[in-house]
């Protein structure tokens, strides 16, 4: 389950028991979370699950793969490094900041905070 306060419009999460493809959060307004499932439906945070941040998921974002477990965004000076403990270390060199992330929606939020841009996901 994801914490309601950690998701925002555009976040990618799994809905209920369907874990084949992430769904998009359409809105998160005062506890009413809307997700797009072909149509817009209201969901409770207890029905939403994090998408684990694996190298395969990171590869669906516009990062350049520079090593087996290393991805970069040279324009925004960001590096992602996946470790064997299923944690992705996000290094934002412009602000000398490092974060530890485990879910796609966390990466999306951090990317938006540091770049003021949405992170694309294919």
* SS field, number of helical segments: 2
Ranges where pLDDT stays below 50 over 5 or more residues in a row are: none
The fraction of residues assigned to DSSP E strands is 35-45%
The total beta strand count reads: 10
Q: Note the run of SSEs as H and E.
A: EEEEEHEEEEEH
Helix content: 10-25%
Kindly provide the radius of gyration, computed on alpha-carbon positions and rounded to a whole number of angstroms: 14 Å
Helical/strand content category: mainly beta
Number of domains: 2
First-residue to last-residue Cα separation: 23 Å
Note the overall shape.
Answer: globular
**Which sequence of strands runs across the widest sheet?**
4-3-2-1-5
Mean pLDDT over all positions: 90
Largest sheet geometry: 5 strands, antiparallel
Could you write a compact summary of the structure shown?
By secondary structure, the chain is mostly beta strands. The chain contains two helices and ten strands. It has a five-stranded antiparallel β-sheet with strand order 4-3-2-1-5.
């Amino acid at each position: 389950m994801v914490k309601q306060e950690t998701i925002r419009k555009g976040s990618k999460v799994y809905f209920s028991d369907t874990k084949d493809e992430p769904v998009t959060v359409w809105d998160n307004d005062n506890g009413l979370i809307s997700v797009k499932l072909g149509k817009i439906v209201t969901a409770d945070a207890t029905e939403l699950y994090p998408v684990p941040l694996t190298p395969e998921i990171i590869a669906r974002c516009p990062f350049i793969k520079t090593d087996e477990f290393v991805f970069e965004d040279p324009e925004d000076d960001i590096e992602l490094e996946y470790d064997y403990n299923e944690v992705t270390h996000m290094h934002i060199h412009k602000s000398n900041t490092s974060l530890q992330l485990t879910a796609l929606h966390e990466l999306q939020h951090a990317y938006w905070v540091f770049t003021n841009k949405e992170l694309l996901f294919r």
